Amino acid sequence: RKDDRQNLSREQLYVRGLEAVVGMRRYVRDMKLGAREAGDVYKLLDLPGGFGLHVGMYIPTLMKQGTPEQQAEFLAPAIRFEQIGTYAQTELGHGTYLRGLETTATFVPPGEHPADEVREGGFVLHSPTPTASKWWPGGLGKTATHAVVMARLITRDGVDRGPHAFIAQLREASTHRPLPGVEIGDIGPKLGYNAVDNGFLRFSEVFVPRRAMLAANARVDADGAYHPPPKKNAKAAYGTMVMVRADIIADASGVLSKAATIATRYAAQRRQGKAAIPGAPETLILDYGHVQRTLLVQIARAYAMHFTGKAMMDLYIASEKGKKQGNFDGLAELHMLTSGLKATCSWYTAEGVEECRRTCGGQGYSHLSGLPELLNSYVQNCTWEGDNKVLCLQCARYIVK
Fold first, then answer.
1. What is the 3-state secondary structure of 258-309?
2. What are phi and psi of 160, to 5 degrees?
3. Which helix (H) or strand (E) holds 356?
4. What is the residue-averaged pLDDT of the chain?
5. Phi and psi dihedrals of 296, rounded to 5?
6. For the chain, how are helix, strand and coil distributed in percent, rounded to 5?
7. Distances in Å between the alpha carbon of 245 and those of 57, 88, 190, 248?
8. Alpha-carbon separation of residue 109 from 67, 122, 221, 269 (angstroms)
9. Which long-range contacts (CB under 8 A, 24 or more apart) does 393-396 make?
10. Residues 156, 201 contacting (CB under 8 angstroms)
11. C-alpha span between 325 and 374 (Å, rounded)
12. What is the pLDDT of residues 281-328, one digit of tens each?
């Protein structure tokens, strides 16, 4: 149900979000719905929760960056929800500037670490400073048992190879308690999005086996030899981020459409001001020119972003197909487009929802209108997956080149 959400505590919202997804999975299974229909059902829930990054980032990363052996070990239980994952990239000290990430993954040869029971070698995950703490990943606070951890790979020769993706188990399967060396928790209330348990994560010399490094693009052999991704696909580790930016572009229209629908329906009912003809009802606020100018702009932008989002996703899917065939030529342009459009669409949507809220006058300030929560839970899109101003600069740099 949705009609009581504004009265729920943060803990109750969190539980409601988990229950909603569990119920949705049951419904999708019973109705034998496909992936597209399941996605539509999830959107109708309209309640982001602790499983969001598991479905939206953890599973896609395993699908795109894991080897068949890694997918058998990690992807299969993730799809069955036996393991719940998140995507731990942003740190307390670094977000948009990914090359500045401080968490390290240092290679350890076979048999040289006490936890390397099968003598395959591995990596030691470590958070060397307070600012190396992973900060903000959704589902990390309470829900996740595993994470894709973006960490700087330090190979046997001591060379820093930059951020790579690793799978790390965070909590014990039977008790859900943090594993030794893992410090983890919830970061507390936020402006919105409070059904999501955004969290923090620190590693203190935690060993993960060599197979924990997602190796579809780059790998480290047992002898410590490093095999980088192809030059044209050097940014392969950031592929999930590009996918999420494409999703943000595709989803922007739906959010602005909701706000525009609420505001337009209200404006078509609410009367205010002197009647044009004596004895007639007061004027509908939708008949005022300034209201029409406000709402028609938002409706037009919602339509424009709908088709932009479809085109962006088609381009992303085509790029993924090309990568499988060894064609990486379109990656730079894809990065430019997702950067610029993510910034533009999220700005238009955040500003548009606020314009719609203002158009509803005092009623728009009430949670009963649905607009305050829509706004508060959306504005984070202007920051996450790349600060908008920085993304505009990245887009401009590509165009200038």
1. HHHHHHHHHHCCCECCCCCCCCCCCCEHHHCHHHHHHHHHHHHHHHHHHHHH
2. -85, 110
3. helix 331-359
4. 93
5. -65, -35
6. 50, 15, 35
7. 11, 16, 22, 5
8. 21, 7, 10, 71
9. 394/335, 394/336, 394/339, 395/336, 395/337, 395/339, 395/340, 395/343
10. no
11. 41
12. 999 999 999 999 999 999 999 999 999 999 999 998 888 888 878 787
DSSP string, 92-103: SS-SS-GGG---
What is the C-alpha separation between 91 and 22, in angstroms, rounded?
30
Alpha-carbon distance of 256 to 375, in angstroms, equals 10
As given in the structure block, the two tokens for residue 364 are 């728009």
Q: Where are the alpha helices (DSSP H) in 160-288?
A: 239-267
CA-to-CA separations, 198 to 48, 193, 225, 331, in angstroms, rounded: 11, 9, 36, 30
- Establish whether 282 is a catalytic residue: no
Side chain identity at 171, as an amino acid letter? R
Spatial distance between the Cα atoms of 167 and 149, rounded to a whole number of angstroms? 6
**What sign does the dihedral 91-71-245-318 (CA atoms) show?**
positive
Q: Which residues contact 229 (CB under 8 A, 6 or more apart)?
A: 217, 218, 236, 237
pLDDT tens-digit map of 119-144: 999 999 999 999 999 999 999 999 99
C-alpha span between 27 and 25 (Å, rounded): 5
Q: What is the DSSP code (8-state) at residue 217?
A: S
Instruction: Pick the catalytic residue from 91, 102, 355, 385.
Output: 385
Residue type, 124: V
